[in-house]
Amino acid sequence: MPRLWPAGATALIILAGVVPVAAQPVVRLDTPANSTAADKSGYTLFSPTPDGLLRTFSPDRPTKSNGPLTVDAGRFQYETDLVNYLHSNVGGVSTRTYVALDPTLKVGLTRRVDLELQFNGYTNTRVLDPGATMSRADGAGDLVVRSKVNLFGNDGGAAAMALIPYVKIPTAARTLGNNQVEVGLIVPISVTLPAGFALVVMPEIDLLKNNNDGGKHVNVTGIVDLGYSINKRLTVFGELYSAVGADAHKPPVYTADAAVAYLLTDSIQLDAGANFGLNRNAPNLQIYTGISQRF
């Protein structure tokens, strides 16, 4: 899930001012014809959707945007970074963060609703200040609990939309997190375009802890993501990201992102990507690779 930056590191929270969100979809709305025609309303967590009625595999990776399609009822899915590296340099403070195995676990509850647990995995952060003082922190990050509720387009059509409310539970050590509960709402909207293109627009609003006191502020995120399917298994992405908050101590962050996803099978996806900072408050570079699988 985080395609912004790895969850937890205090220096990164100060820079970004946002809660890491799940990361980011290959939006494939060309679902099988039998999936569209069948009535799947009777399938639940305890009455799984049959293999022949599964919608096209569409994980929330690899970019920062999230897709509007849910996991089929009674089915399970994981999405994780294998390796994630981030480097930033703001005000002379250099930060390098490494994250490994930060899985998002998903289960389909009904035809339109799934439950998602985002575990921000092992994180190692090194911060070097202008005085050449090195500080380090490592351990697991916070837990994010989400639910994706599809409003339309889950089983076919040229457009789809969902609501994703989330709550961040402060499970990280103080050196990696801010020890605060934070909440937000994500609204992914996808549209299938001609010639193999797909567009995702994703506004998000968060209520986050202030940097310098115990108060809270509103943060607004906007993402525009354009994907192009080279063939049925290979998709490339270009994306623009912005995050602007009401806390004067958390300046805006802007990035340009690129990624590629490959369907190894109909239920396994491999991906890789890179995010590039567009202003001095954004991380200079983030590179990652990951895997997603459905059961």
What is the structure about, briefly put?
With 295 residues, the chain is mainly β. The chain has two helices and 16 strands.
Describe this structure in words.
There is one protein chain. The chain has one domain: Beta Barrel (Porin). It is mainly beta and 295 residues long. The model is unreliable at 1-26 and 28-36 (pLDDT under 50). The protein is built from 2 helices and 16 strands. Strand 1 and strand 2 form a beta hairpin. The chain has a 16-stranded antiparallel β-sheet that branches.
* Number of E strands: 16
Please indicate the percent range of residues in DSSP E strands (runs of 2 or more): over 45%
Overall geometry comes to: globular
Mean pLDDT score, rounded? 87
Give the total of domains: 1
User: Any idea what the radius of gyration is?
Assistant: 19 Å
Strand pairing plus helix content: what structural class? mainly beta
Helices and strands, in order, run as HHEEEEEEEEEEEEEEEE
Q: Tell me which CATH architecture applies here.
A: Beta Barrel
Helicity range: under 10%
| The CATH top-level class label | Mainly Beta
pLDDT under 50 segments (min length 5)?
Answer: 1-26, 28-36
Largest sheet: 16 strands, antiparallel
What name does CATH use for the topology?
Porin
CATH-level-4 superfamily name = monomeric porin ompg
What distance lies between the first and last C-alpha atoms, to the nearest angstrom? 18 Å
Helix tally equals 2
